[in-house]
Amino acid sequence: MIRWGIIGLGRITHRFIEGLSYCDDGMLYAGASRTFETRKQFQKEHPNVRVYDNYDELLDDPMIDVVYIALRHKDHYEWSKKALLKNKAVLCEKPATLYYHQILDLVRISQQNHIFFMEAMKSRFIPLRDRLKTLIQKDVIGDIIRIETSFCNQVPYDEKSYFFEKDQGGALYDVAIYNIASILDFISSQFEDIHIQQICQYGVDVYDDIEIQFHSHQTARIECALDRQKEKKMVIIGTKGRIECVPFYRPTQATVIINDESYIIEQPYINDDFYTEIKAVHDAFNHHWNEHPQMTHDDSLRCIQLLENIVYLSQKDGPNHES
Question: Checking CA distances to 145, which of 44, 114, 161, 205 falls within 20 to 30 Å?
């Protein structure tokens, strides 16, 4: 039985725990939060689970095999590193870090000590993803020439929310990693040119429209926002047709369009959208892997490299509009 400890007991943790509950080879063993009311509510909901008020104490618990890091973005690196150095396998929420050198450090520790580490990119483990890969490999839509993605949410301003903190807030750090990971799942080439149009409010980016050119001459678009609600859509455009997915980061169906004809393919979740990601961690742990082939260390490095370059360019050039 694989025993999980969770650091950070926010909203996403509840969904993770539900996914874990479907696993017959894993269990929730402990959770940690620095907030008294959060710990109190968590203990009420999970009376048989150990609860810590100190993250280090959870990491010192010898019964814990794997740690799920579900903290604010800027805390991911620190606590992933501490967990790895305590010989705990790590599943860290996205983005796993804010900077390339931080991911590189976590990968180094994972590989040198042969301890599992993975960024929690559940879109790589959604069952429909394999169907899409198969369609593309069979040349159904031809060669991929462009991928367009949009992930826009309306998030009310809250000065206490990390969404609006200058060092970790904004749309790019919040959701662009979904767009990036989905694009790089289908385009293997290195990027060579980036153009960004951005709107900033409250000291952070609230809307970004990004064009990317790859060495392969393929292109991609990333649209992400905190200031508007739109359909979360991906369009994979090929030389023979296209595939459309909504919501693209956890789809259960896609529309395939060839000329004037279209059809829908469907692949439901197994239990829920977290279960297959958790099972992948269990498989890797049981096989003594330090990474999973569907979301490798190199995948995380490619993702953060592109995100870091986008963030750098947006800060270098300044926003197109500030209000």
Answer: 205
Q: Please give the pLDDT value at position 268.
A: 97
Cα 312 from chain centre: 20
Summarised one tens digit per residue, pLDDT across range 92-127 is 999 999 999 999 999 999 999 999 999 999 999 999
Type of residue found at 216: S
Q: Under CATH, which number does the domain 2-121+274-291 receive?
A: 3.40.50.720
**What pTM was computed for the model?**
0.95
Residues near 252 by beta carbon (within 8 Å), at least 6 away in sequence = 126, 128, 266, 267, 268, 269
| Closest of 234, 236, 226 to residue 198, by C-alpha | 226
From 62, 72, 17, 14, select the one nearest 38 (Cα to Cα): 14
pLDDT in tens, 46-98: 999 999 999 999 999 999 999 999 999 999 999 999 999 999 999 999 999 99
The answer to whether 83 touches 109, Cβ cutoff 8 Å, is no
Q: Single out the residue of 194, 163, 232 nearest to residue 10, CA to CA.
A: 163
For the CA atoms of the chain, what is the radius of gyration? 20
Nearest to 233 by CA among 160, 258, 241, 243: 243
Handedness of CA 225, 231, 232, 236 (dihedral sign): negative
The Cα 295–Cα 184 span in angstroms is 11
Fold of the domain spanning 124-272+304-322: Dihydrodipicolinate Reductase; domain 2 (3.30.360)
Work out whether strand 253-258 and strand 241-245 pair parallel, antiparallel, or are unpaired.
Answer: antiparallel
